[in-house]
């Protein structure tokens, strides 16, 4: 599997910002679609954003549009999630996930076969 390690989580007040990172040690990173999803306590996983291998096309959940930005630097085998205007309801464990790109399934982050250990984001009122 493609190994992924998330970092950058922390505790912030509502309205604050964080940038999450997801680094891979696999040579396959630059041909993978990569995305972010979250799990809040007692809730199911929800997809935040997805980005194609070249970085030119992205997809966002309605709840984060205009607030979060997904990006990648393939030379560093790293995925990023810039999170602005954070809300208490954004509190969750955030995971990155990766899969070989397919045009018909690239947005299905929860079905990607590779994922990291997660990084905690806590937003206080």
Secondary structure layout:
Layout: E1 4-7, E2 10-13, E3 18-24, E4 32-39, E5 46-51, E6 58-60, E7 68-73, E8 78-83, E9 92-100, E10 114-115, E11 119-124
Parallel strand pairs: 2-11
Antiparallel strand pairs: 1-3, 3-8, 4-5, 4-9, 5-6, 7-8, 9-10, 9-11
Architecture overview:
The protein has 125 residues and is mainly beta. Helices cover 0% and strands 49% of the residues. The protein has strands at 4-7, 10-13, 18-24, 32-39, 46-51, 58-60, 68-73, 78-83, 92-100, 114-115, 119-124. The radius of gyration is 13 Å and the shape is globular. The mean pLDDT is 96.
Give a quick summary of the entry:
The chain has no helices and 11 strands. With 125 residues, it is mostly beta strands.
Query: Unreliable runs, pLDDT <50, ≥5 residues?
Result: none
Can you tell me the overall shape?
A: globular
- Main sheet, how many strands, which sense, barrel? 7 strands, mixed
How many beta strands in the DSSP annotation? 11
Please indicate the percent range of residues in DSSP E strands (runs of 2 or more).
over 45%
Strand-pairing-aware structural class:
mainly beta
Query: Helicity, in percent?
Result: under 10%
Number of helices: 0
Provide mean pLDDT, rounded. Answer: 96
From the N-terminal CA to the C-terminal CA, the straight-line distance is: 39 Å
Element string (H = helix, E = strand): EEEEEEEEEEE
Mind telling me the C-alpha Rg? 13 Å
